[in-house]
Write a structure and sequence with these properties.
732 residues; mainly beta; 3 helices; 41 strands; globular
Length: 732
């Protein structure tokens, strides 16, 4: 139910981990590969298109971590939330069905229909506007690219913190298929499959699906539990190559999410039930969320350049009904755990991107135009128990429009030295018409309207020009030094109410400096990458549940300035043909250098609220990953692969106010897997354990902003507890 749910339920070179593995050889070897472990004599780069041309990660002069589809399967990644802490500086959490992503301490917690993410989530080049669309996209995936730092001079949609690019597997000229079955604790059952059929020499079709279900991780004292899963997803791709110079890909996909749904649990003083995965609810919720779309991608080789078009139309519908707490368990008369809720959303988005690019010769360049339009109709209603006045947010007309022109070029001054320049111009507009109502009622799964407390209207626009400059130098054939400086921008927005009292906030602006060194040694058996960065942030947008006209509402404000800097180290070592160690170390310093709310807030009703010096949310100073893998070649030709991955995440706060109740102490999380591949690499059996320590890790948290504000209590969401299971897969 997105942020609205909170209203209702307020060592360096030798150490280096799993993300680096994704930049190197796949672990284990691809299931259809004939060779065994002893054939692994070099680390292998993944080929990416992060800079709109095919390059290996080691030749891409930006901070990037890539994961192959095989690696994702072994690591148990089936949703974007599974990527949490797998990449230096990356934090991913599920907030009532919406995905909140932060990179290097920069993220967005306003995941309502009026907010924009700081990290762009793209699937096959299509930007997903609403964060809940990121939940079920990761099946039959070729690779995932995680780009750190502002993006815009190469992409249709700009992003201040970075981008996650999901590239699915395309139809090929080979008849093939696969199927898998995964069963684990919590009655977890996941199935997936793919069939690729070349119909003619010029036409191929690929179909893939995934289903996933498990019982709830949260015990609500009833027959059904919250935080369960019941999803189905399918994708159909049709690729046409009528000539050597033209190809077109038509893609259709659908994702449905059902079950009891999500529930944020009480924290701090409100958490009196022993386990963070236990809190009583008097009524089961229900989730009915569907995301579907159609996309068309064409590439036309004109000789001097390639013309690419990426168009998409998507719809997202949500019908969520939240449960209410048992009588007597509310912690305060107006506490956030006492309401039955309904969330309804009907969203559609249209996007068009046209690019012309040349990747040959000393001058490589790309130029493009981008258009995006989104419309949304939203209702969120709360009907508290004990006769407390109901509240509903009725927003039938919400729109957002973005237009942009962008270009970037790289010129080789010598065989070893290259310089890059990029420019982007963006225009954004947002509007809304609606109201906040009271005295309505929830009858079953239907809201019966009340009367307006106040209107919610807005019509705002902004524009920005951003740029990037960089240079890269080959120190040796397998060593590259690069440096860049660039700017980022994210549009402003508005809150509840009418102008000028609708809490408008300004665009946020970022200037990012980055220097990096990418190296491979010992005939590509050792890899070590280092990145240093510094961010100068202005008008950084921070969001939380606040008060508007005495009622709880998502409020976004601008922090004056923030400073972020840090160092990241990634690498891998192929000790033998059968042994590999990989890992990463990330240090981040992220602080607000000027953040004062002159008129105060619910926690400072009679004075200014001073948050200067506070840490940015979701920015642990230290994150350390470490992975080790060993492979055994059996006499039969079969192979056994054992892998352990462990991550240490330092202390962090999940809210900009930095209250103790929203702090997540340092923790470790360890994943284990043991896989058997047959001699022909046709089938595999894998046993796994994830979160071996069974730590309850808080990933989203908000203090209680109701009434006068209680900084000792609030609500939050936890990552899954320990899970384990067996996965069987086969190729044909």
């Amino acid at each position: 139910m997105r942020t609205y749910a909170l209203l209702a339920a307020t060592a360096l070179a030798s150490l280096i981990t799993a993300p680096a593995l994704a930049q190197t050889a796949t672990a284990p070897a691809p299931q259809n590969a004939p060779q065994g472990a002893s054939a692994q004599q070099q680390l292998e780069d993944i080929v990416v298109t992060a800079e709109r041309r095919e390059e290996t990660t080691q030749r891409t002069p930006i901070a990037i971590t890539a994961f192959s589809g095989d690696t994702l399967q072994q690591r148990g990644v089936s949703s974007s939330t599974d990527l949490n802490n797998m990449v230096p500086g990356l934090a991913v959490g599920n907030n009532g069905g919406s995905v909140q992503i932060a990179i290097r301490g920069i993220g967005s917690t306003n995941d309502t229909e009026v907010g924009d993410p700081a990290v762009a989530f793209n699937v096959d080049g299509v930007y997903m506007a609403r964060s809940r669309a990121a939940i079920g996209a990761l099946y039959d995936v070729d690779r995932i690219e995680v780009l750190r730092g502002p993006q815009g001079t190469l992409y249709g949609r700009n992003a201040t913190a970075g981008s996650i690019n999901v590239i699915t597997k395309r139809p090929s000229d080979k008849f093939e298929g696969n199927a898998s079955l995964d069963y684990g604790n919590y009655n977890s059952l996941q199935t997936s499959g793919m069939l690729n059929v070349p119909l003619t020499d010029t036409l191929a079709v690929r179909a893939a699906f995934q289903t996933s279900r498990h019982d709830g991780y949260t015990n609500n004292g009833r027959s059904s539990n919250f935080n369960d899963e019941d999803t189905q997803a399918g994708r159909l791709q049709i690729q046409l190559k009528p000539s050597e110079t033209f190809k077109a890909l038509l893609s259709l996909d659908v994702f449905h999410e059902g079950g009891v749904g999500y529930a944020n649990g009480p924290i701090g003083q409100y958490a009196k039930f022993g386990s963070p995965y236990t809190f009583p609810m008097s009524a089961d919720g229900s989730l009915n969320h569907t995301n579907k779309g159609v996309g068309l991608t064409t590439d036309w080789d004109l000789g001097f350049a390639t013309l690419t078009y990426v168009g998409s139309y998507r719809e997202d519908t949500d019908r969520t009904h939240g449960g209410s707490t048992q009588s007597g368990t509310c912690q305060a008369p107006s506490g956030p755990y006492c309401a039955s809720t309904i969330f309804r959303s009907d969203e559609n988005q249209t996007s068009h991107e046209l690019r012309l690019a040349n990747s040959d010769g000393p001058l490589k360049w790309v130029a493009g135009l981008y258009y995006f339009k989104e419309n949304n109709d939203v209702l969120f209603a709360l009907d508290p128990v004990a006769g407390i006045t109901s509240l509903a947010f009725v927003q039938p007309k919400v729109s957002e429009e973005s237009k942009a022109a962008f270009a970037q070029a790289t010129y080789s001054l010598t065989d070893s030295l290259r310089v890059t320049g990029g420019l982007r111009y963006t225009e954004d507009a947002k509007a809304r018409t609606g109201a906040t109502e009271a005295f309505g009622h929830i009858v079953g799964n239907t809201y019966v309207g009340g009367s307006a407390l106040y209107l919610n209207d807005a019509d705002l626009s902004w524009n920005s020009t951003n740029w990037k400059a960089g240079a890269e130098y080959d120190l040796a054939p397998d060593s590259m030094l690069y440096a860049s400086v660039g700017t980022g921008y994210k549009a402003g927005g508005y809150g509840d109410g009418q102008p000028p009292n609708n809490n408008p906030y300004q665009p946020e602006k970022l200037t990012a400096y980055e220097v990096g060194l990418k190296n491979q040694f010992m005939d590509k058996r050792l890899q070590l990458n280092l990145t240093g960065f510094y961010y100068d942030y202005r008008d950084f947008q921070v969001s939380a549940i606040g008060q508007v006209a005495g009622q709880a509402s998502t409020v976004t404000v601008n922090a004056g300035t923030a400073e972020v800097y840090g160092v990241e180290v990634e690498g891998a070592a192929l000790l033998t043909g059968s042994d590999r160690v990989d890992g990463s170390v990330s240090y981040i310093h992220a602080r607000y250098t000027d953040f004062i709310l002159a008129t105060g807030d619910v926690f400072h009703p009679n004075s200014a609220a001073v948050y200067t010096g506070n840490r940015l949310a979701k920015s642990p100073e230290w994150t350390i990953n470490l992975g080790y893998q060993h492979m055994w070649d059996l006499a039969s030709g079969a192979m056994i692969t054992a892998r352990v991955d462990s991550v240490y995440v330092g202390d962090q706060n999940l809210d900009y106010r930095n209250f103790a109740v929203t702090e997540q102490k340092a923790y470790t999380k360890t994943n284990l897997s043991l896989a058997y591949d047959d001699a022909d690499r046709r089938w595999r059996v894998m046993a796994y354990v994830r979160n071996l320590e069974n730590n309850a890790v808080l990933v989203v948290a908000n203090p209680d902003t109701n009434g006068s504000g209680n900084r000792l209590a609030g609500s939050g969401a936890y990552a899954p507890p320990r899970t384990y299971g067996v996965r069987v897969s086969a190729n044909f």
